[in-house]
Amino acid sequence: METKPLDSNEIQALARRLDDAQVGVHDTLSLADDVAVDIDDAYRIQESLIGFRCGRGERLLGVKLGFTSKAKMAQMGVSDVIVGRLTDAMCVEDGGDVDLHRFIHPKIEPEIAYRLARDVDVDDPTVDIESCVDAVAPAMEIIDSRYRDFRFTYTDVVADNTSAAAYVIGPWQPMRGVGELAVRLEAGGESVTGSTAAILDDPVNALHALLDMSRRRQIPLRAGDVVLAGAATAAIPFAAGTARCDVEGLGSVTVKGIA
Length: 259
Ligand code: 0L1
Ligand code: MG
Prior knowledge:
about 30% strand, 5-stranded mixed sheet, binds hexanedioic acid, globular
């Protein structure tokens, strides 16, 4: 069924609801319970939400992809990746502490990060996004859906900036292939193993998916931006103590949750 686009007041009100949940550290129910939100509306809500964050002085530092595994796409019944935005308030230094009180119900997942060396002209059909990347690193993302019990629809999670909450990046290495590297994540007494191949068969494919999404959603890609390519395993709870991710031959990255 086709839905009518939401007007700008409705978009702002939904973005405010999600922003209040993040700032106030409380959950909210699926937007889809109250209103029909299509995917275009969802990205408009995300844009409005990011506008609130930038209005409080946060700076955009990059982008992240979600739904990059076949299992997650199948679970959500979609065939597209989703894109969210990263700000400086979400960035935690490698080995740094992060206060768990800023999250509702955080989970952590192992990722691959890329760094853009120059602006990507997303309107140029011949642009080679791989040649715009100068570095790759092991990384972890802390996701914290603002929806109760992580229960959301496809459009809900896009509106909620794809559950982005925090991220930490390990040592940058010169850009190289990272197509099928073993990954291990340990956090809160749990551990999980996987492969970078779980990210769209090869994390480099995330760069191409990002370029396509950036064209469709008018998301600028600038020199210095970080790109979180997606999760190499399912997320696990992020609890007090050290979380560590090791990526075969690429390095490791740690972060400490403080209760
Ligand atoms: O970054 C991700 O892969 C997560 C995307 C959002 C889905 C979730 O919160 O589980
Ligand atoms: Mg992620």
